């Protein structure tokens, strides 16, 4: 089972790993495009106003541009520690036991506008590039990643649980992947999509799937793991699930 997570705009600083080595990352087929994008961001960082405009940043976020300038030299840390924010707080990888972390590193992967997709243990530097950004001279990230990333994800050969947000799901389709919609249910049984706490609930589901001793290979297996973890999940289609929260 591979659980695809969205990335986060915020990234932890520093790391105790050496500089970025593309050869140390999973899915090496993506390395040629990874290298082109990294080089482009490093070059772009020399022009701060152009970087701010391309990345959709404010003047107060110039440190993000500086991060991109150090992509080849900055320290690295495993992806699961690099990404921060609501989903990763709920995932709470820091609380995993050694055996759970080992399972999580096999099962979790993070979508990335810069790297395409990385596994949880892959060592990466801090960077700034979101799925909706554009890199001058490269067109849209969707047009770049789709023809390269879709064949790679199609060859995963195991059940894929897709928890990516729409922006990152657009970078590569994964036919047959299990998708999850977070909904709230009122006293009358009416359901509506949850937006504000969506990431937190997906983080909890990801934690359950990542650490479970069972390895689900079917949609029903995913439901079973979630329910055992106290998460209300229902199957609503061949590959669709709804995670039901309280009103």
UniProtKB/TrEMBL annotation:
One GO cellular component term noted in the UniProt record for this chain: cytosol
InterPro entries: YaaA
Source taxon at top rank: Bacteria
Gene Ontology biological-process entries: response to hydroperoxide
Pfam families linked: H2O2_YaaD (PF03883)
Record protein name field: Peroxide stress protein YaaA
Origin species: Prauserella flavalba
